[in-house]
Design brief:
The complex is a heterodimer. By secondary structure, chain A is an alpha+beta fold. In chain A, 20% of the residues lie in helices and 35% in strands. Chain A contains four helices and nine strands. Chain B is an alpha+beta fold. Helices cover 20% and strands 34% of the residues of chain B. The chains are: A alpha+beta, B alpha+beta. The interface between A and B is medium-sized, with 12 and 17 residues.
C-alpha cells in the first residue's frame, strides 16, 4: 500500500508534510519486510538531524534496522505509544505507527524525495 | 543454491526464502511470532530437510562412534536417539548431532546442514583403521518436523502405528501412508513432537498429509526464524553461535553430553580442563533494559570488553529479550550483571537459568 499524499525515500521511509511539520514513518513495504516488530528505539525530542541521518532504530524478531529521516530538522514529537505497542508499526504504518514529527529546516528538501508514483515504480523495479 | 524437496511448497505458501547453509530455506511464512506461538500452544510443521544424515554401518560401528562422539553409544538400545557431539582433540566442538541406533551395527547421524561436508570428512579421517562403512545420504532424505502439544494427535491421523509407544528420544520405523520411514520423538523446540525421515521424493506427500490432518488443530507451517527463537527459549545450543571449534564442550555448557571414562577423542583435554577449572562458560541472560540483543554484539564485563554475544533474540512466548553469553566463570552466577553494546550504547543484562522456558510434562 502506498498513499498518494506522502513523500518517500529510497530507504522506505515516508513523510507527511503539513505546514512546517513533517510526520515520519516507515512504509508498508518496509514493515512487511521487517515483520514482527518488537522494539522501536524512539529518537529524543530536541534532536537535530540532517536528511538521511539515523532517526531511530527498529527491531523485529529477526533483525534490526536503522530508520533515516527523509527531511532535515528538529524532532519535536515522538510517538510514545510505540514504546509499549511497537506492533502498531506493522498494523498501521501510515497511521498509528508514525514514528516522529520533525520541524522542517528547509521545505525545499521535499523536492529531493520520491512521489508516491516514483516510489511505486522503484518497488516494482525491485521485484 | 541447494533446495530441499519441499522448495515448491515453501514458494506456494509464500514463505520468505533466505540462504541458510547453502540452502534456499523459508525463514518465515507469515510471522515468526505467530509461528513460534503456534508451536508452543498447538503445533507447527517445519521442513528441516537441509539437515545432514550420515549412515555408519559395520562390525566396528559402535566402537567407532564410541570413540568419535562424546556421549555414550555402547549402551544405547536399538530404537534410541541420543544427543551428542563430535569433539576435536582439544575438546572443542566439530558439530553437535543426534545418534540414532538403527540396528546392532548400524547408526544414523543427524548433523547440522552447515557442517555436513566437514563432519563427513572428519569422520572419514577418524574412521581409518575401523571396520566401518560411512555414507552421506543427506541429499536423498527429506526431514519434516512436527512440533507442539498437538503433534501426536495430528500425526496419529495419518498412521495406524500407536505413536504413544514412541517415548521421548526414541524412534520407530513405521508405516506412514504405505511407506516405511523413521519417525522419532525428537525436536529442537522444547515441545513434544516428532521428526520424520523419509526418502526425498516422499517429503511433499507427508507435508501435504500433515497440513491436511492438522487443519482443525491450528497447525501452522513454521520457518527457520521460529526454529531459532524456539530453541533459544528452550535452552538449546545452536552450532556456530553457542559453540564451535574454539569453545570446549565444558565451556559450552554441554557436559551433560560427555560420557566420562569411555575414551573418546578430546576426553583427556576435557578431563584436564575440568580438573583445572573453567575460565569462562556459556550462561543464559535476560535484558534488564529494553533492547534486543543479537549474535555478535559486544559484551562488557565490569566495564571491559569481553568477547561477543553467542545468541540473542526477543523471545516471543516469554515476551522478554534473552540470550546466551560466554562470561568469566565467576560472572556466570545467577543474578550476576554485565552489559551488551547495542548500536553504540551499553545495556544491562542479568544471568538467569539457561532453560528460559520449560514445558509442563503431562
Amino acid at each position: 500500500m502506498i498513499l498518494d499524499e506522502l513523500y518517500y525515500t529510497k530507504s522506505h521511509e515516508w513523510v507527511r508534510v503539513e505546514g512546517e511539520k513533517g510526520t515520519v514513518g516507515i512504509t508498508d513495504f518496509a514493515q512487511s519486510e521487517l515483520q514482527d516488530i518488537v522494539y522501536v528505539e524512539l529518537p529524543e525530542v530536541g534532536k537535530k538531524l540532517k536528511a538521511g541521518e539515523v532517526l531511530c532504530s527498529i527491531d523485529s524478531v529477526k533483525s534490526s534496522a536503522e530508520i533515516y529521516t527523509p527531511v532535515s530538522g528538529e524532532v519535536i514529537e515522538v510517538n510514545e505509544k510505540l514504546s509499549s505497542e511497537p506492533e502498531l508499526v506493522n498494523k498501521d504504518p501510515y497511521g498509528e505507527g508514525w514514528i516522529a514529527i520533525v520541524k522542517l529546516a528547509d521545505s525545499n528538501e521535499i523536492s529531493n524525495l520520491l512521489s508516491a508514483k516514483e516510489y511505486e515504480e522503484m518497488l516494482e523495479g525491485e521485484k | 543454491m541447494k533446495r530441499t524437496p519441499l522448495y515448491e511448497i515453501h514458494k506456494k505458501l509464500g514463505g520468505k526464502l533466505i540462504e541458510f547453509a547453502g540452502f534456499e530455506m523459508p525463514v518465515m511464512y507469515s510471522s515468526i511470532i505467530e509461528e513460534h506461538l503456534a508451536v508452543r500452544e498447538r503445533a507447527g510443521i517445519f521442513d528441516v530437510s537441509h539437515m545432514g544424515e550420515i549412515f555408519v554401518k559395520g562390525e566396528e560401528a559402535t566402537k567407532f562412534l564410541q570413540w568419535v562422539t562424546s556421549n555414550e553409544v555402547e549402551k544405547m538400545k536399538k530404537g534410541r536417539a541420543r544427543y551428542s557431539s563430535f569433539p576435536t582433540e582439544k575438546g572443542t566442538v566439530v558439530d553437535d548431532l543426534l545418534v540414532y541406533k538403527l540396528d546392532e551395527d548400524e547408526y544414523m547421524l543427524v548433523v547440522n546442514a552447515s557442517n555436513t561436508d566437514k563432519d563427513f570428512r572428519w569422520i572419514v579421517e577418524k574412521g581409518k583403521g575401523f571396520d566401518v562403512k560411512l555414507e552421506n545420504k543427506s541429499a536423498e532424505i527429506a526431514q519434516i518436523a512436527i512440533q507442539g502439544p498437538r503433534s501426536q494427535e495430528i500425526l496419529q491421523k495419518i498412521t495406524d502405528y500407536e505413536l504413544s509407544s514412541i517415548r521421548y528420544y526414541h524412534f520407530a520405523v513405521i508405516e506412514l501412508l504405505g511407506e516405511k520411514v523413521i519417525v522419532s520423538r525428537t525436536g529442537y523446540t522444547g515441545e513434544d513432537g516428532f521428526e520424520i525421515y523419509s526418502p526425498a521424493e516422499l517429503g511433499v506427500k507427508y507435508w501435504n498429509a500433515l497440513m491436511e490432518a492438522g487443519r482443525s488443530y491450528g497447525l501452522k507451517p513454521a520457518g527457520l526464524g521460529a526454529r531459532d527463537t524456539l530453541r533459544l527459549e528452550a535452552g538449546m545450543n545452536l552450532y556456530g553461535n553457542d559453540m564451535d571449534e574454539t569453545t570446549t564442550l565444558l565451556e559450552a555448557d554441554l557436559e551433560w553430553i560427555i560420557k566420562w571414562g569411555k575414551k573418546f577423542i578430546g576426553e583427556s583435554a576435557l578431563a584436564k580442563q575440568k580438573e583445572e577449572g573453567l575460565e569462562r562458560k556459556l550462561a543464559g541472560f535476560e535484558m534488564l533494559e529494553k533492547a534486543v540483543p543479537r549474535h555478535g554484539y559486544k559484551l562488557f564485563v565490569d566495564g571491559k570488553e569481553y568477547g561477543k554475544l553467542a545468541s540473542g533474540s526477543y523471545a516471543p512466548y516469554l515476551k522478554k529479550n534473552i540470550g546466551n553469553a560466554y562470561l568469566p566463570i565467576e560472572k556466570t552466577k545467577l543474578g550476576s550483571e554485565f552489559e551488551i553494546e547495542i548500536r553504540g550504547r551499553k545495556y544491562k543484562a542479568v544471568v538467569v537459568p539457561r532453560q528460559f522456558y520449560k514445558r509442563e510434562k503431562k
